[in-house]
Amino acid sequence: MCGTCGCGDGDSVTMTDPATGAETILREARARSDHNHGHVHTHADGTTHAHDHNDDHAHAHSHSHDHGHDHGHGHDHSNHDRGDHHSHSPTQAHGADDGLVALQTAVLAKNDAVAAQNRGWFRGRGVLALNLVSSPGAGKTSLLERTIRDFGGEIDIAVIEGDQMTTNDADRIRAAGARAIQINTGSGCHLEADMVASALDALALRAGSLLLIENVGNLVCPAMFDLGERMKVAVISVTEGEDKPLKYPHMFRAASVVVVNKIDLAPHVDFDQAAFLANIKAVNPSAQIIMTSARTGEGMENWRAFLKQEMVKQAQT
Amino acid sequence: MHELSLTRNIVAIVADHAKTRLVRRVRLAVGPLACVEPRALQFCFELAAAGTVLDGARLEIVDGDGDALLIKDYELEEAA
Fold first, then answer.
1. Interchain contact, B77 vs A63, CB within 8 Å
2. Of the candidates A195, A184, A208, the residue with the CA atom closest to the CA atom of residue A129
3. So what's the pLDDT on residue A97?
4. A82-107 pLDDT, tens per residue?
5. Which member of A62, A71, A75 has the closest CB to residue B8?
6. Which of B16, B48, B80 is nearest residue A62 as measured by Cβ atoms?
7. A10 class by beta-carbon count within 10 Å (0-12 exposed, 13-18 middle, 19+ buried)
8. CA gyration radius for chain B?
9. Which pLDDT belongs to residue A264?
10. Which of A268, A267, A270, A259 is nearest to A293 (CA)?
11. Angle ∠(A226,A228,A232) on CA atoms, nearest 5
12. With contact defined as beta carbons under 8 Å apart, do B42 and B8 qualify?
């Protein structure tokens, strides 16, 4: 599956372990010269197909493309090898007589399958995995730092940090005293299940630990990508305005818990708490709401109590 | 924003299935809660399809249920 959402080329997805500095490339950048899918479609006359992958079939189609775009695209074919592993002729139908082929395949089937594997992995080890989502700057990393410091080693905590660039957040988490892996999505705007699976290999989580996955700051895309977590936790700060749940209903509907952070700033930004809670209820009546200030520590005991309670539940499933 | 990623998934899934056969049309069901902008999918589809067996194919978006984002079927170009 391809996770690069931006149109820019040259961005790869990387994973960095701040403890060792080791960097692993999870997905090659698109449009690299070293991947071997170099079609030489000459569509002007509609005939010349000089595929340089191994299939030696001759495309004798004759549709006339008169658009002169150049085919310098580079999608990653590592997941679906297009070698010559099928021996029938190109015109032979795969069981469809009328040219219509039923698929009924979910677009996110591949991600969902990996997410299901992750979920089983977590269940088997009694690991509670939470997917933290928010807009950039809501205070996810500060909340995690405070959580790690306040628990003070009472529970095993590990963090997967998702950002487009830099290992700043993983460094902060590590400084706070927890194991962290940084995933840089390049131009990608969300984490996907296979990135989490790769990070799990690197993290060597202990059974019964808490895994906090800090998604890329974005209230749109992460809503659709299941990572295998027990639940999504949306973090919002009081500075963002009361109507955010109404503006981004998908995310607030996908989250089981909403953490309202920076409540120490509420008096300074005229935060209307009643309106905000009503707006969350409007899009997600069952969401649990926890008010915190990662800076002053206010409400953090409720957040910690919630985490411990969910860890007990996870251990019992 | 994620529509390009999704569109490339759609193209990859269909291309993988169609093997070398050329595809004329793909039918995609999008539910009202799918969190997807159909026009953005259309916009990205031509780009994502370029240079594949879906080059020049049409993306037909039909209504789906709930949060469905499902490739229902695809139609092949008639053999030359």
1. yes
2. A208
3. 56
4. 343 443 444 444 444 578 999 999 99
5. A75
6. B80
7. exposed
8. 12
9. 97
10. A259
11. 65
12. no
The DSSP call for residue A29 is P
- Residue A41 or A299, more confident: A299
Task: For chain A, give the percent of residues with pLDDT over 70.
Answer: 75
**Residue ranges of E strands in B14-78:** 23-30, 58-63, 69-76
Which residues in chain B (55-74) have CB-CB distances under 8 A to chain A?
A: 55-56, 68-74
- Which chain B residues have a beta carbon less than 8 Å from that of A221? 1-2
Which pTM does this prediction carry?
Answer: 0.75
> Is there a contact between B12 and A2 if contact means CB atoms under 8 Å apart?
yes
Which residues of chain B have a pLDDT value below 50? Answer: 80
Please give the pLDDT value at position A52: 44
Per-residue pLDDT reduced to its tens digit, A278-296: 999 999 999 999 999 999 9
pLDDT 10s digits, A186-222: 888 899 999 999 999 999 999 999 999 999 999 988 9
Instruction: Please give the helix or strand (H or E) that residue B46 lies within, else none.
Output: helix B38-49
Residue with the two structure tokens 């990996």: A114
Count CB atoms within 10 A of the CB of residue B20.
20
Kind of pairing, strands A157-163 and A210-214?
Answer: parallel
The DSSP output letter for A32 is -
**Mean per-residue pLDDT, A126-140:** 97
A-B CB pairs within 8 A amount to: 135
Place of tokens 């998702």: A162
In this prediction, residue A28 carries a pLDDT of 81
Please give the backbone phi and psi of residue A49, each rounded to the nearest 5 degrees, phi first: -120, 100
Q: CB B6 to CB A108 under 8 A?
A: yes
> Per DSSP, what are the bridge partners of residue A157?
A210
**Closest Cα partner for A132 from A119, A143, A123?**
A143
Q: Mind telling me how many Å the CA of B39 is from chain A's nearest CA?
A: 16
DSSP-derived secondary structure for A175-241: HHTSEEEEEE-TT--S--HHHHHHHHHHH-PPTT-EEEEE--S-SSGGGG---S-SEEEEEEEGGG-
